[in-house]
């Protein structure tokens, strides 16, 4: 059977758009250190956000050079809060907008505490909204 344009309606959608990332994935039980079933939809996107922001870009050869964040580069850097407020949203966008399920990112809070700099980020996705709190760096 040949595939000509008139026959594309019979091809599964995933084959017609090979760049779209799948949503179904394994659920990571971080505390237990194991895989615990599968997840899909909003839960899968939320796990992607957490895992991406916790993974340093370029550190692990299992991931390509687009996966992860460069937030770790802020650790130990001196800089005023205004500079951090401008740099953090850019780094979050670079890390998370690699996934086609994520449509917008907004930093909703930034606060200095004894244990570091904390960022509240609201992520709008095709599966719904996700809000995460991320510790960016120690020793502010």
Counting helices, strands and paired strands, the structural category is alpha+beta
* Extended strand count: 5
Oligomer: single chain
Mean pLDDT: 81
Count of DSSP H/I helices: 3
Distance between the termini: 63 Å
How much helicity do the residues have? 10-25%
| Poorly predicted runs of 5 or more residues | none
CATH architecture: Roll
Could you spell the SSE succession in H and E letters?
Answer: HEEHHEEE
Most strands sheet: 3 strands, antiparallel
Radius of gyration: 18 Å
Give, in spatial order, the strands making up the sheet with the most strands: 3-4-5
| Morphology | globular
CATH topology: Nuclear Transport Factor 2, Chain: A
Percent strand equals: 25-35%
CATH class label: Alpha Beta
Supply the number of structural domains: 1
């Amino acid at each position: 059977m040949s595939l000509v344009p008139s026959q594309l309606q019979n091809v599964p959608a995933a084959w017609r758009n090979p760049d779209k990332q799948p949503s179904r994935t394994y659920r990571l039980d971080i505390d237990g250190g194991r895989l615990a079933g599968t997840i899909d939809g909003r839960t899968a996107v939320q796990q992607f956000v957490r895992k991406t922001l916790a993974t340093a870009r370029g550190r692990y050869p299992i991931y390509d050079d687009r996966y992860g964040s460069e937030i770790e580069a802020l650790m130990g850097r001196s800089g005023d809060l205004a500079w951090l407020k401008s740099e953090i949203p850019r780094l979050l966008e670079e890390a998370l907008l690699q996934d086609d399920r994520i449509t917008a990112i907004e930093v909703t809070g930034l606060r200095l505490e004894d244990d570091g700099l904390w960022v509240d980020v609201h992520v709008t996705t095709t599966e719904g909204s996700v809000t995460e709190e991320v510790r960016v760096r120690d020793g502010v």
